[in-house]
Amino acid sequence: MTISRADIEKVAVLARIRLDDEQIPALENDLSNILSLVDQLSAANTDNVEPLAHPLDAVQRLRADEVTESNQREAFQAIAPATESGLYLVPRVIE
Amino acid sequence: MHNKSVAELSRELESGKISSVELTREFLDRIKAEDGQYNSFITVTEDLAMADAKAADEQRAAGNANVWTGVPFAHKDIFCTNGVATTAGSKMLANFVPPYDATVVANFRAAGAVCLGKTNMDEFAMGSSTESSFFGPVTNPWGLNKGEKRVPGGSSGGSAAAIAARLVPAATATDTGGSIRQPAALCGVTGLKPTYGRVSRYGMIAFASSLDQGGTMARTAEDNALMLNVMAGFDPKDSTSANRAVPDYTATLNQPLKGLRVGLPREYFSDQLNPAMEQQVRNAVKEYEKLGATVKEVSLPHAELAIAAYYVIAPAEASANLSRFDGVRYGYRCDNPQDLNDLYTRTRAEGFGNEVKRRILVGTYALSAGYFDAYYLKAQKVRRLIQQDFINAFKEVDVLMSPVSPSPAFVQGEKTSDPVTMYLEDIFTIAVNLVGVPAMSVPAGFVDGLPVGLQIIGNYFEEARLLNAAHQFQQVTGWHQKFPQ
Asked: For chain B (length 485 residues), average pLDDT per consecutive 10?
């Protein structure tokens, strides 16, 4: 299995990781090698096998809809790159 | 004092022969003097440790001590520590100071143990050599006397190297594909990956959530039991935490092994295994026979597919987990973002290292439209086949034994150029994570002066049986008491 330059560029957009042009050849090589390793899976007969998402097949635990945590906005925003009036700042989205 | 185990140090403190302040000072001085050559710590919390030691001594004087009160140890830098930098070995979190404690951290705090700092690791726990850390590689204390700079294994290489160098008697660690067992093996220490869900993941920075499990590392099995006593238990803050009673893991250490049924998985004694390593592992199995165990060969027919399944599932889950690092709420943010997309893409390009980016890209690809069934769903089905192999094996035997890694500690840089070569380091450890069962690495000899680990795999929630088996082995062997020169 090989992965093309176009595939890598598309996946990088989905993953929100900027790639420089000179990084792509090495990634083509590495990702193709990883996908070749992964392609061993196609040899396995998995007819009628249920996928396993959790080792103990546990399901999501539910709890009562009650407030259990106190508001810690100041503590959380103290470590943010940029905040103002309790809001997180990002570059302007709407002109 | 620095050669002693946690159990021994605890007795010294109890007898009043030494105070926690003195003990903590001694270990901090060793870290200061020696860690330059290993780089096993990212952060050393000297002032906090001395204050905690003083508080521990006061607690003991007041008659409120337990086995951990005043005993120094360290946390892998993946566990969030309130007010102390927690980096996961990444530039992305180099400036991250969590406003809360992981449950594991809170548990050790409540027990009165003295944390000396945070140990180095592969970035976001992705690696088998602790070479991908933003804070530089860790050097294995073994081999340095020959002038060789070898890897400590990974991703918990800082914890393993620090224990082997006797900078701490014990350290926490995490294991997603072998990240406790492989470094423990390569550094000659004892490590335990518990059953999935046994130890809370709350505040443990996520890599692959259906595989990640916190665990223990120390020199002896007894110390691992003492650690697990503090770490194991139900936590409502972790949605996959197991709600089951926690035994006293030290209570069964001395049970005789007579009648223990040991299985040797044929597939784990393959031609990929270094023959000298195989000899050491088989010698260890012979010790178990002398202790009264019966040994038979078993088969895990789908085990050879474990690496392939893992390198779909782990990157897929990682790509989702690591999407939270966007430069908005905490962690690294790129300079002068032009717009929101530029903020995201440049923050992630600059903040993540190469291996992390590779795995995010592979995971994103595997989850993308048109590929989900062929990769992710297929891998989860193969995961079930592998689990069925283990369930069948445990109908015949109580524990499985195998090597931990295919070869001893390799030289730094030897496997960094080809990711797949590095991935094959975990060929004997990865299935355990897919299945979710507990497993240990126990020192079992040397090859060319480098430690060899014996892997002992147990059925779900049978940590006590593994610790018992490891402890009995350590009563009749001295491998765990060997120190690097």
From this structure: 96 97 98 98 98 98 97 98 98 97 98 98 98 98 95 98 98 98 98 98 97 98 98 96 96 98 96 92 98 98 96 97 98 97 98 97 94 94 98 98 96 93 93 98 97 98 98 98 93
For residue A31, the chain B residues in CB contact (below 8 A) are 358, 361-362, 365
Contact of A62 with chain B, judged by CB distance below 8 Å, is answered with no
Give the burial class of B28: count Cβ atoms within 10 A of its Cβ; 0-12 exposed, 13-18 middle, 19 or more buried.
buried
CATH superfamily of B6-259: Amidase signature (AS) domain (3.90.1300.10)
Catalytic, out of B90, B128, B129, B155: B155
Say yes or no for a CB contact (<8 Å) between A15 and B377: no
* Prediction ipTM score: 0.96
Give the closest-approach CA distance of A92 to chain B in angstroms: 7
- Ordered structural domains, chain A, with CATH: 5-41 (1.10.20)
Alpha helices, DSSP H only, in B368-452? 372, 378-396, 419-423, 430-435
pTM of the model: 0.97
Min distance A62 CA to chain B CA atoms (Å): 9
Q: Which of B319, B198, B263, B142 is nearest to A31 (CA)?
A: B319
